[in-house]
Amino acid sequence: MDKARKIGINKLQTSEEAEICARMMSGSEPYITLRRDYESSLKMISDPLREIYVARSGGELVGFIIIVMRGALIGYIQSICIAAEWRGKGVGSELMDFAEKRILLEAPNVFLMVSSFNNGAKRLYERRGYKVVGELKDFIVSGHSEVIMRKTIGPAADFVKRQLHITSARLFI
Ligand SMILES: CC(C)(COP(=O)(O)OP(=O)(O)OC[C@H]1O[C@@H](n2cnc3c(N)ncnc32)[C@H](O)[C@@H]1OP(=O)(O)O)[C@@H](O)C(=O)NCCC(=O)NCCS
Questions:
Q1: What total number of domains does the chain contain?
Q2: Ligand 1 pocket by C-beta < 6 Å: which residues?
């Protein structure tokens, strides 16, 4: 826990960071079972339409999170991965805190998918207030589902109203 408290979170900037993240992801479950190899991980991490944030402790890159702010489900946490030796120390929770704050500035929902066999991650998301809203059977690999989860601060129409209120309040200050 002490170590985790010293982490800093920044946008991914260099191709070297992208390569470290791709190695971390492709060498770990659930991504091994999901057949996300180094090349496909690197492609995803290098896609400018996604936002990637990395967590560092000292000079070491200890984890990262991928966010998508476009498409049908705006505010989608596509992946999160912590270096194996850093798991269980609060880094994933800090990255989730960061991602949720960033998403909820622009959208009222945070979506993610968790593989049906990834019980540890599912437990973490449930503890953070995510609810199961659907299941995609055989979605990435045969025999496993991707479970869709959502955390919300309210309906979209109320969110738009609130945003307008904040904007007009700012205009009239
Ligand atoms: C899931 C993951 C992102 C959580 O990050 P973390 O830094 O380990 O999590 P924290 O220390 O903030 O919180 C611990 C909780 O994470 C969950 N967790 C899942 N896998 C874990 C692991 N291998 N080690 C430790 N905690 C894990 C558990 O719910 C744990 O709570 P518990 O101790 O009560 O069981 C991280 O363990 C990881 O990268 N796992 C492999 C990749 C993965 O599963 N990504 C999610 C894909 S949907």
A1: 1
A2: 28, 30, 80-82, 87-93, 114, 118, 120-121, 123-124
